[in-house]
Amino acid sequence: MLVKDVMTKNPITVDVKASVLDAKDLMNKNNISKLPVVDKSGNLVGILTSNDLQRAAPSDATTLDVYELGYLLSKLTVEKTMVKNVKTVSDTETVEEAARIMSDGDFGCLPVMQDKLLVGIITDSDLFKMFIEMFNARTAGIRAIINMNDKSGSLSVFTQKIAEENGKIISCITTPAKDPDHRKVTIKAVDISFDKFYKIAEVCGEVEDIREIK
Question: What is the pLDDT of residues 167-188, one digit of tens each?
Fold first, then answer.
């Protein structure tokens, strides 16, 4: 899966010269918390988040009244509040690489570029949605976590046995196990009974967890 398959296309942007009040209103109106910042030519120059706006707000200990606060915030521009030198990602990059960049850099989002053109934004929420889709979390079925031998053909044996029972695998994710000679395989299937699925799983590896998802 590529970034272009997951990202929010044609993201809402804010002008670099806009006030932080305008940016806040834009976020509230569109129920978003991240805004790419562009200049008058439409070039990406920064990113603004709701956290940036909170840091820009005066302390609760201030003696200014509400009108004075409003005036000061109306004069404070996005340019002075945004994060500059933004890390971006190409729309043809893989989602796992985008997730790695976000995790390693502690970023909540990445503007998505097509050459020098801003075409989207990928956020932690987009990755959560992708995670749900990868595990087919909204579909009923039998789900198991199996520690399988990490050797050629182990997974194909399991899938063949499921097929022989007319079952259908709707998600399959493998991750490292504690033992380097094994892989942890999370599989979800439909059109097969719990007992048949369990027996197949026991034959093919150590069943760490198995449950029926309704």
Answer: 999 999 999 999 899 999 999 9
Residue 95 makes CB contacts below 8 A (sequence gap 6+) with 1, 2, 3, 5, 6, 122, 127, 130
Structure tokens at 205: 């590896």
Tell me, what DSSP letter sits at residue 150?
A: -
Among residues 77, 76, 75, the alpha carbon closest in space to that of 17 is found at 77
- Alpha-carbon distances of 150 from 113, 184, 208, 210, rounded to whole Å: 38, 9, 16, 20
Distances from the Cα of 165 to the Cα of 16, 107, 189, angstroms? 60, 45, 11
pLDDT of residue 63: 47
Angle (CA) 23 27 33, round 5°:
110
CB contact at 8 A, 109 and 35 = no
CA-to-CA separations, 213 to 51, 156, 161, 162, in angstroms, rounded: 37, 24, 21, 17
**7-47 pLDDT per residue, tens:** 999 999 999 999 988 999 999 999 999 999 999 999 999 99
Smallest CA-to-CA distance from 196 within 168, 155, 175 is with 168
Taking phi over 0 as left and psi of -120 to 50 as alpha, with beta for the rest, 153 belongs to: left
What pLDDT, in 10s, does the model give residues 139-151?
999 999 999 999 9
* Cβ count within 10 A of residue 156: 9
Per DSSP, which regions of 96-167 are E strands?
A: 109-114, 117-123, 141-149
